[in-house]
Amino acid sequence: MATAAARAAVVVVTVVTMVVSVLPGAEGHLQMGAYNKTCPQAEEIVLKEMSAILGKTPDLAGPVLRLFSVDCFVGGCEGSILLDSTPNNTAEKDSPLNKGVRGYEVVDAIKAKLDEACPGVVSCADTLALAARDSIRLSKGPFIPLLTGREDGNRSVAADVAANTPAPGANITDLIAQFAKLNLTAKDLAVLSGAHTIGKARCSTISPRLYGGQNGSSSSDPTLDGNYTTTLRGQCKPGDESKMVDLDPTTPTTFDGDYYKLVAGNRGLLSTDAALLLDPATKAYVSSQANNATSDDGFFADFAVSFLAMSKIGALTHHKGEIRNVCSKVNPPSPPHNSNNAAARTYLNGGLLLLTLAAPLLLGFLFVGL
Ligand code: HEM
Q1: Which catalytic reaction applies to this protein (predicted)?
Q2: Inter-residue contact 78 to 153 (CB < 8 Å)
């Protein structure tokens, strides 16, 4: 009985949230089904392509999900992470902090399919957002109804990354502060970190925890479980750079709540995962999921809410951005007018000029005639 009432309450809250989010004035004017009229099959195409890609390479779900978060954290979810550097500008993707970010080719492949069906309609920012949403669903995580209508921004500056991205060794105070700048709470931090249930990290990222160097120390991180440290040392030798290890070694391609058991047991791979135990609010969330949860339902519902909040950050809509042709390049400036229009305008202007000059003459004749 109580369960039925609780479910009904969840449904009501969900519906209200969805309605509020499509009202004018809701964040950035994103809306449910922004492509319903212009490209009704858009979301279906993304799901089909992601299914085919992950069917061949399940490991790509993590990179795509991370790519989206990295995009949203710097300048908002407007596809700026996808832009290439140019001779005059080093782009976000070439910031040292984004060296391990991968999955760009997945977005390009899906955008190509979308453009085949509906040329120039779906933005790169939405392609990435929908692909990330589907990487969760296809890894057995929750389905998250996503607002769309994001347009692509054209600012992508490497120097913006450090100021807006939590550093790999950031402490819990810095992490919470970084999230607060984006209107995300400490709970969002604990919940979204749960994305580290899939995907990998490079040995270079975790070697300070294994061999010292973290915060100036010369030994391994005492907050990392000793047996796990030994296992990881077997996988990552000193000097291994780009070799990768699973964030969640038991179920590396399944989106589940196991992450919290790992963190609670001092086996969170990243120092920022371990840091969740050092703040009362984030620790309480980790403990509740690790010790009290009887299923992943609570985590999934929380993740959907926090993911939606993240997906709205800095979204550009209503012609504040563009629909990029190629996700790695801003569109070339369009010529002011095409030649036919220009000719028509010259003709029209000439006609108006003639009429203006002839008007006094015509009026003169009229008076003389009268
Ligand atoms: C507290 C904020 C966060 C920090 C400090 C952080 C940090 C990291 C780091 C250092 C890596 C490993 C990168 C490497 O070694 O190359 C990583 C991987 C990953 N992160 Fe996060 N992350 C954060 C938040 C998020 C969020 C919000 C999401 C998604 C909702 C996410 C999803 C992922 C995924 C899926 C991977 C694996 C990527 C792959 O397989 O290539 N992270 N993260």
Answers
A1: 2 a phenolic donor + H2O2 = 2 a phenolic radical donor + 2 H2O
A2: yes
Name beta bridge partners: 152. 322
Distance of CA 72 to the CA centre of its chain: 5
Name the region of 100 (left: φ>0; alpha: ψ -120 to 50; beta: rest).
Answer: alpha
SS (H, E, C) 253-318: CCCCCHHHHHHHCCCCCCHHHHHHHHCHHHHHHHHHHHHHCCCCHHHHHHHHHHHHHHHCCCCECC
Residue 4 CB neighbour total at 10 angstroms: 8
101, amino acid identity: V
Q: Which of 24-38, 52-66, 317-331 has the lowest mean pLDDT?
A: 24-38
The Cβ-side half-sphere exposure at 12, using a 13 Å CA radius, reads 6
Q: Is the CB of 133 under 6 A from ligand 1?
A: no
State if residue 213 touches ligand 1 by the CB under 6 angstroms criterion: no
Taking the CA of residue 247 as reference, the ligand 1 atom at the shortest distance is 37
**168: which DSSP letter?**
T
pTM of the model: 0.86
Residues in the chain: 370
Ligand 1 mean position, distance from CA 288 (Å):
22
Is 80 annotated as a binding-site member? yes
> If we measure between CA atoms, which residue out of 132, 123, 122, 130 comes closest to residue 40?
122
Tens-digit pLDDT profile for residues 259-268 = 999 999 999 9
The best mutation among 69, 138, 286 to test binding of ligand 1, ranked by most ligand atoms within 8 Å of the C-beta, falls on 69
